[in-house]
Structures are given as structure tokens and as C-alpha cells.
Amino acid sequence: MASLSGLASALESYRGRDRLIRTLGYCCQLVGGILVEQCPARSDVGTRLLAVSAQLSHCRTVLRLFDDLAMFVYTKQYGLGAEEEDIFVRWVSVLGNLADQLYYPCEHVAWAADAKILHVDAARWWALSTAFWGLSLLLGIARSLWMVLKLRQRLRNPTTTFSGQPPRGRRRVLELQIQSEMLTLLSNLADLANAVHWLPPGVLWAGHFPPWLVGLLGTVSSVLSLYQAMRAPNSQDDTTSP
User: In which domain of life is the source organism classified (predicted)?
Assistant: First the structure.
């Protein structure tokens, strides 16, 4: 009952519902892609699962129409990162916030073009929104790599101190921070692989992933995100990932 109550609680929040929809959508794409490609006898089931995945993805796209304000408030609060001690983390975060802020309106225009609300080239706007997402992921990867490097340096430094905590507690705090950054790094790498796949043909491996591989990478990223959210239930994301 505790797990059921936890699931119900997660579904009551927008971010929790989005994570679960994302995970379910990518899982359907993974299983559906495998059935279509590897099990001809069950290709009909696989096709239906791929259709479910597409509808869940479309659902999340529509819900992201309302994310701009939350992203703007977060970007405004962070500003130029004056409270950030590390100059590299500061400017990478600022650029990442800018990329995230620009991503949303581009996706909205692409969605409106697909829905025949706007008479513009949808493919161009989808490519632009994906490019901003990929840029944000690259900046996030750079930030996580830098943070892991700095945290490991502090872990090896015997003079590192945290006020009010014993030495063993200080070491455990650093280890948990490194683990969190590594999980974020792996999640961003999986998403980046998919982001490149969705770019126009001719860009690296764009368009070359089969549906099951897109589903696998998305599932890995989603599960890692769910795991981190469960470890820090009080934390809230200001953006959602495609």
C-alpha cells in the first residue's frame, strides 16, 4: 500500500506525472520496436505499442506549452549566477538556462505548424528546438564532468571540511554528490544520443537509430531521472525533457 500511495502522490504532481508518462512512453517504444523488428508474429502488438508511445509523446508536447513561465522564473532567479562560486559552472548554467528558454517557443511553433495552426515549415522548427535541447544537454554534460572532477579533488583532499559534520559524514556527502552527478551525466548522454538522432539527416548519426534503440536510450534516461527524484523527493525540476 505504501508504494501504491507513493505512486498516487507522484501522479498528483505535474513533474511526477511527466516523469512517469515519459518512462512509459519510452518503454512502449522499446518493446514495440523490438516486437516489430525481431518478432514478425507479434508485429501488430509492436505497432500498437509504438502508436501508444507516439500519443504519450504528443501528450507531453502539449503539456509543455505551459512550461515557459516556470522556466522564465527559474532563469530570472538564477540570473547570471552571482551566488555560484565556480565561474565555469556559473556560465555553463547561464548558457544552459538560455538554451532551455529558447527551446520551448521553438517547440511550440513546431507543434502549431503540425496542427495547421501556423503556416510555417514544421520540420525546420522541430530541428531548431532539438538543436537547443542538444545544446542544453551538452552544457549539462560539461557541467557534470567538471563537478565530478572538482568533487573527486575535494574527496582526495584531507583538508576538506564541512562545518558541523564528522570526517566520515563529510566523505559520505561528497560521495553522494559524485554519484548524483554521474547519474545526471549518464542520463544526459542517453538523451543527447537521441537528440542527435532527431536532427536533420546528415548530422552525425541523425535518423539512423531504430525505434527500439531510441526507446532504450529514453528508458535509461527516464529511469535514472525517476531514481534521482525518489532519492530527493523534495526537489523540483523547472523543466521537462522531450
Answer: Eukaryota
